[in-house]
Amino acid sequence: MYINEIFSSKKPVLSLEVFPPKQAENFGRVKDTVTKISEIPVDYMSVTYGAGGSTSKLTPELCQYMQDDLGVTALAHLTCVSLTRSEIRAMLSDLKARGIKNILALRGDIPSGAEFPLPDGYRYASELTADIKDFGGFSVGGACYPECHPDSADIDKDTDNLKRKVDAGADFLVTQMFFDNNAFYSFRDLCAKKGINVPITAGLMPLTNAKQIERMCVLSGGASMPAAFTRIISKYIDNPVALRQAGIAYVINQIMELASQDIDGIHIYTMNNPDTANSIVSAVNGLFE
Ligand code: FAD
């Protein structure tokens, strides 16, 4: 099913993100994990894309497995930073041949020291979005950043650029993780002012261990942490069981509050952890019926 059709037919939409293995030999193990996660009732699942090398094929492969064997609508992430336009066309043909209908069109992080943009390559995700739309047959999503993308001078310029991505054909947007719902509400208001009127899904990351969150915050360019959240981290830092429970409860609270604010969708970064994803979804699934 096309994801833009899911957004047209219900609100809020609930989705989960998983990632493929870094090494092809671990594909079977990740398939088992994804099979468990797919038992959680949601509207679609997305699979991240690791740029370069043979593992980039694992994203389409995992998406195809999810659709054909597990009956789950798949959203394939695709980054263009290291690919030429003809390589992207080959990727799109492959995705289409596998029956994948949804792509999250991303630029990807620019690898340090790499040539960028490549000759006949892409500078921004909006260019990839336009090419996918020209190719045809896909519902296309894009990434967005409630607390500003790290390459942008400010949120005003970043959302101007986001508007370009939507004008290029993005059907829906998925946010970077955030821990402060107010950051999301301000961002949503700003998008509305700028005429960005496609569905915006809130990306939420459950805290299950402090190191992982610290790392993800660096990667995400520093999602701000409300005092209530940092108190949880410092209080339970040496108690992994309590930290995990408190982190799950925090995300459940975030979802409860967001749902009451007429949100388009919630996307949970599962970190390939079926138990954590299941604990969250079973606590809130009534909000998504
Ligand atoms: P863009 O939309 O191109 O934006 C990048 C920067 O360029 C922004 O600062 C933007 O404001 C600016 N910009 C855009 N257009 C213009 C313009 N015309 N003129 C001037 N500036 C402009 N990475 C992966 O490697 N694999 C994944 O699977 C993956 N999944 C992700 C999923 C989500 C939901 C999110 C939020 C991020 C994900 N990322 C992933 C990370 C993403 O690739 C990086 O954040 C990357 O640095 C930016 O990608 P983008 O698609 O947002 O780029």
Order of helices and strands: HEHEHEHEHEHEHEHHHEH
- Give the integer mean of the pLDDT values: 94
CATH class: Alpha Beta
Structural domains: how many: 1
Oligomer: single chain
What is the name of the CATH architecture?
Alpha-Beta Barrel
Strand content: 5-15%
Between the first and last Cα atoms, what is the distance in angstroms? 18 Å
- pLDDT < 50 runs, ≥5 residues: none
Work out the radius of gyration. Answer: 18 Å
How many beta-strand elements?
A: 8
Summarize the topology.
Blueprint (H helix, E strand, L loop, with lengths): L2 H7 L3 E6 L8 H12 L5 E4 L10 H13 L3 E6 L5 H13 L4 E5 L18 H11 L3 E6 L10 H13 L4 E4 L5 H13 L6 E5 L5 H10 L7 H10 L3 H20 L5 E5 L4 H11 L5
Helix pairs in contact: 2-3, 2-11, 4-5, 5-6, 9-10, 10-11
This protein binds flavin-adenine dinucleotide.
Summarize the structure.
The protein has 289 residues and is an alpha/beta fold. It is 46% helix and 14% strand. Helix 2 (27-38) packs parallel to helix 11 (274-284), helix 9 packs antiparallel against helix 10 and helix 10 runs parallel beside helix 11 (274-284).
Give an account of the 3D structure.
The chain has helices at residues 3-9, 27-38, 58-70, 85-97, 125-135, 155-167, 181-193, 210-219, 227-236, 240-259, 274-284, and strands at 13-18, 44-47, 74-79, 102-106, 139-144, 172-175, 200-204, 265-269. With 289 residues, it is an alpha/beta fold. It has one domain (3-288): TIM Barrel, CATH 3.20.20. The longest helix has 20 residues, at 240-259. The chain is globular and about 50 Å long. The two termini are 18 Å apart. The model has no long low-confidence stretch (mean pLDDT 94). The protein binds flavin-adenine dinucleotide. Residues 48-49, 51, 77, 79, 106-109, 124-126, 143, 149, 151-152, 158, 161, 164-165, 174, 176, 203 line the site of flavin-adenine dinucleotide.
